[in-house]
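Below: protein 1.
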Amino acid sequence: MYIDPKRNNEITRLNFDSRQGHEAMSQPASEQQQMLNGDVGAVSAMQNTNERSLQSSEQDNPVLNASISSLAAQDPATEIQSRKTSGKYNLHDFQILRTLGTGSFGRVHLVRSNHNGRFYAMKVLKKRTIVKLKQVEHTNDERRMLSIVSHPFIIRMWGTFQDAEQVFMIMDYIEGGELFSLLRKSQRFPNPVAKFYAAEVCLALEYLHSKDIIYRDLKPENVLLDKNGHIKITDFGFAKFVPDVTYTLCGTPDYIAPEVVSTKPYNKSVDWWSFGILIYEMLAGYTPFYDSNTMKTYENILNAPLQFPSFFHPDVKNLLSQLITRDLSKRLGNLQNGSEDVKNHPWFSEVVWEKLLCRNIETPYEPPIQSGQGDASQYDRYPEEDVNYGVQGEDPYKDLFSEF
């Protein structure tokens, strides 16, 4: 069930204690847990200020800029029908409680609806900074993509609005925090735990690709956990509708596919490469091509052999060898059968995909939170600043963000 910020819908909620991960993947959830399927969780949201939070884009890499600039004009600008998100909410509908995350363009706040008392995440981006860093297209793409998607494992956006200086997005508040934080606490996940999260991510990617949307920024920081421990993919700043190919260099260095680094045209294949890197990091605790020097990371992505820790199961090594491959004609997910090749791989043999899509499989971890109380204990604390939201007056950028 979804909870509209302007409606006082009733919903049954449960509180859960933190548990250790389960080995079984096909155990059904309780009847009460099933009632919660699709319930509002939470979002963080923006890039955290951790060591991997700085994402590269077309502007960030001077070495690659020349190639990208020459290809930019070829990038197709096909339109896609999106849902209208403006006009439903405004700043007075919400009470700002605290900051959940910060980034180069603004911050994400935990807010409470003045109409139904429920909690949401409000992402606020500064127009001037967006324009200065040439991220107008990405910002508008994020709104469009979030207005289109509706899936159990993808964040939901309720609406947007703007003032003279900022754009605002109202989204579900996902209380359980980032998968990244859980992974760092655990150092690495046991095979069944990594498999559970990977399977839910796989279903989300399959859905996005069915709508010709490529995500382009898969990483543990952008995978959130709801109150029951199921995933929600968030941060669609680099997502794009691409029915054919695109050329833009964007993403997080550790996760960027080789065809992106080498400025070749690409499509959905890049998400399956990143999917392989995500599985690798969940199991190993680190990514396979990392180097403290970003350019060296790119060189490793293009040339370094894929090596596995000794404790990796043979099935997962076989899967990753077919995902993290530079040969697009052999990369799983990019072949004739698409995502079915990934789902049918032996590593996923015990996954009951239909039950998983219905969130009818018990999760390996339930965040230790008080559900429905605006509990933000799973998010880092950030210094609060005096905000100047709701500014009226001259807006030189209004036409650039007309859909907000």
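Below: protein 2.
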Amino acid sequence: MDCLESSVRFDDSLMSNEFGSVDALLTAMGHKRFSFPTIPFIMFLSAFHAYGQLDYNFYDRSCPHLPMIVRFGVWAAFRNETRIAASLLRLHFHDCFVNGCDGSILLDDSLDFVGEKDAFPNRNSVRGFEVIDRIKAEVERACPLTVSCVDILTLAAREAVTLSGGPYWPVSLGRRDGLTASQQAANQRLPSPFEPLENITAKFTANGLDQKDVVVLSGAHTIGYAQCFTFKRRLFNFKGSGKPDPTLDSSLLSNLQSNCPNLDSSNSKLNPLDVSTGYMFDNSYYKNLVSNTGLLESDQALMGNPGTAAMVNDYSTYPFHFASDFAVSMMKLGNIGVLTGQAGQIRKRCGALN
């Protein structure tokens, strides 16, 4: 996948004290907080107290403008390219699934380790590093050596969802950045679109999540794109049959075969994961699965299991159920294997250790 083509400049005036609240900043940006019905904070705060030493108010005194800096940084990138929202969300997911949410995916290779950026699930695919780096630079200017890169990434993922029309959820803060990265762990632990549902579920379970989280977090595919190679076997040689996937809608099949011909040169071409509303965070992803127009084999497989199919049907009918459950699952995701206290460090630059 391509990187951002033009730089994002931060307007310092938007960081001034004239914006006394997040809502004031959002008004200045001309964007609503989210389109889903408001999810009561009390539901979250009663179900999710801060994990370990994480706290919803962790930076209130040490970096009070952090939420607005992150929000504006994501908005500026989103204004430049709406696709970046899905990229930031995926970046957060791929970080947390490899040895916990510790910002390891942001690290470049070093003499001591081979990083995760070039792992097979991430190679020429995971993106958004420049956005996090720009936000980190702004945060360092306001609050030097105070806020971790992983906290910035976690907040950025939330902002990406809300800017796309999805739900808002409170993010507990105080994570510390990890001291290493592992390409091997990334290759082994990240779910693949080619894996059967039971394997994907096992990888979620290994991170303290469950089958419901598989269905809910798969709903992130309501935004973003996939390269042709991730689903091409469904179009021409499904499971070695020499024929297309019989569950794939015939009209969609024809369109995909046209955009992704059975040639290596088409492998990196992009297609929307949600063929209905690819830039809007809504429940169309689940409606697509019900109508056999899911793009990835691993997505459509959710309809082949009675338990997951029941959840898909529910979310396709009741968007608020999806919104509220997605918020809860994202809170669980963001607290996988976090480092707190004196563990890890606060990186000055996200791509390298101090």
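The chain has two domains: 12-188, 193-331.
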